[in-house]
Amino acid sequence: MHTRLTEILDVEHPVMLAGMGGVSYHRLVAAVSEAGGFGCMGASTMRFDEMVDEIARVREQTAKPFGVDLLTAAPQDLDAKVNAIIDGGATVFVAGLGVPRDVVELCHRRNVLVVNMCGKVRHAVAAVEAGCDIVVAQGTEAGGHTGQVATMALVPQVVDAVGPDVPVLAAGGIADGRQMAGGSTKRALAGIIAAALRDELNGRLGREPHYIPVLGKPGDTAALTQPGQTEAMEALIPSSETNWENRYTPRVALRLRSYRPFEKASRVRCPLLVCVSAHDTITLPGPALAGAEAAPLGESATYECGHFDVYAGEWFERAVSDQIAFLGRALADSAVAQRP
């Protein structure tokens, strides 16, 4: 999965090992990094020489990026420890229980990212103001170390507070893929809703629309951000001479919640053909198929392809052929019905 986080951390998967003291030692850290995630060592309980040795063991077992977690609340020799972390080959310093204001500049000067663990919105805001590159919204499920707010309540609040330029990771109440997807969706949705509200306000005040891109990279505030969507959409644009612009007014997002056309399908009295892409992740096939079944004269045609595939090539030809055949049947049935 390609996301903004995978780009920043230079990893394959948007998964980061928590730097758990007494748990995240070199074997686990190296294994996570080797598997394509981001391994993070928990060094808060280690002696200085033990930490240096563990970092060296990580680097022996993997050439991939990894980080080290320390407690800002235990500042003894923090500069020396951070320098040792960087000297050992870590690419990220993760700070827990406090904003690491004193070492942010040091890390950036040596090309190392700074991640801050935050259990409250004000902690996240302070971290960003101090120059931290990534914020981890850690819910109380993660042992209650950083606060009392649950993960799924905390994440969208932190996303809104730090703005679109700072990546936010969710931690704590994340146990499976569904919760991972929920955390990612919340950030994307929050950005679009914020833009939609601004655009709606501009419209009511008679101002120029506030546009956001139709196409964007994973993590961007845009309508379509999943891998492959930009290429698929651009392939449909006729030529460089087209007037199409990569932007739209996001206020339409405020009305999508109530947009349920297939709920009225039972009232459609004319013949109805619904063409469905079985692997569509933009317009889900389930509601469309249900609508075709609910319509008195409805029928459906399903194609084993994705959202954009039916607009060109083989799947386009199949869909057009089915539509022409449907139209022929509908007109023939209508002619028969009108005969005296």
Care to give the gist of this entry?
The chain is an alpha/beta fold and 340 residues long. Helix 3 links the parallel strand 1 and strand 2.
- Count up the domains: 2
What ranges have pLDDT less than 50 throughout 5 or more consecutive residues?
A: none
Query: Could you describe the largest sheet, including whether it forms a barrel?
Result: 6 strands, parallel
- Portion in strands: 5-15%
- Widest β-sheet, arrangement of strands: 1-2-3-4-5-6
Assign the CATH superfamily of the largest domain: Aldolase class I
- Report the end-to-end length measured between terminal Cα atoms: 62 Å
Q: Which oligomerization state do the chains in this entry correspond to?
A: single chain
Known CATH architecture of the largest domain? Alpha-Beta Barrel
- What is the 3D shape? elongated
CATH topology of the largest domain: TIM Barrel
Radius of gyration: 26 Å
What is the percent of helical residues?
40-55%
Beta strand count: 8
Structural class: alpha/beta
H-E string: HHEHEHEHEHEHEHHHEHEH
Q: Write down the CATH class of the largest domain.
A: Alpha Beta
Mean pLDDT across the residues is 85
- Please tally the helical runs, counting DSSP H or I stretches of 4 or more residues: 12
SSE topology sketch:
Blueprint: H1 4-9, H2 26-34, E1 39-42, H3 48-61, E2 66-71, H4 78-87, E3 92-96, H5 101-109, E4 113-118, H6 121-129, E5 134-138, H7 151-162, E6 168-171, H8 177-204, H9 229-234, H10 253-256, E7 272-277, H11 285-294, E8 298-303, H12 313-338
Parallel strand pairs: 1-2, 2-3, 3-4, 4-5, 5-6, 7-8
Helix pairs in contact: 2-3, 4-5, 6-7, 7-8
